[in-house]
Amino acid sequence: MSLYRTFKTDRLIIRPTSEKDAELIYQLLNTPKFIKFVGDRKINSIKDAEKYIQIKILPQLKTLGYSSYSIITKADGLKIGICGLYNRDGVDGIDIGFGLLPQYEGLGYAYESVHRLMRAAFEEFKIKEIKAITAKENISSQRLLEKLGLEITGTTQLPNDPEELLLYKIEHKN
C-alpha cells in the first residue's frame, strides 16, 4: 500500500510516478514535441530515466505528498503519459503540467487526467492556486489550459532558460 494517493477517472488510473515507470519517462521525454516545448532532459537510456525519477520526481513526492503522476488506461493498463503538480524553480507556486505519448494525444486523456489532478490539488492537497507555463507556440497546451479554466496572466522565464513562456493561473473557488 502506497503512502501516496492514486486517483481514478472513468478511463484512467493516475498514480505517483516511480522507478517502474522509467520506460514511460524515457519514451515521453524523448518525443519531438516534449523536446521542442519543454526541453531536452538528456534522458538517453532507461537507466537515465530511473535516475531522473530518483532525483527530480521522488524527492518532491516525499516532501510535499504530490509530484508527477503516471497516466494509465484502465481498459488495458497502458502507460500513456504523465501529469503532475510541480514545485518548479522559476514559478511562484505550484505548477500543473502534463504530457502524453503522441499516439494518445487528441483522445481527451490529458483533459481527463489534469482535471482530476486539479480537483485533488484543491480538495485534498489544499492548494489555493495552481499555475501553468507553456511555450508560446504550444497552441494545443494553451487550449487545454483554457478549457480547464486557467487564465493567462502574463509571461515568465525559468532559471537558465532564455525562452519567454506564457503563465496561466487558476484559484480555488470555495
Describe this protein's structure.
The chain is an alpha+beta fold and 174 residues long. The chain has a domain at 7-89 and 96-128: Aminopeptidase (3-Layer(aba) Sandwich), CATH 3.40.630. It is built from five helices and eight strands. The protein has an eight-stranded mixed beta sheet with strand order 1-2-3-4-5-6-8-7, with helices on both faces. The longest helix has 19 residues, at 46-64. The termini are far apart. The model has no long low-confidence stretch (mean pLDDT 95).
Secondary-structure content class: alpha+beta
* Major β-sheet profile: 8 strands, mixed
How many angstroms does the end-to-end distance come to? 31 Å
What is the total tally of β strands?
Answer: 8
The CATH topology of one domain, please?
Aminopeptidase
Mean pLDDT: 95
Determine the strand fraction and express it as a percent band. Answer: 25-35%
The share of residues in helices is 25-40%
Task: Name the shape in a single word.
Answer: globular
Unreliable stretches covering 5 or more consecutive residues: none
Cross-sheet strand order for the largest sheet = 1-2-3-4-5-6-8-7
Order of helices and strands: EEHHHEEEHEHEE
The CATH class of one domain is identified as: Alpha Beta
CATH architecture of one domain: 3-Layer(aba) Sandwich
Radius of gyration: 15 Å
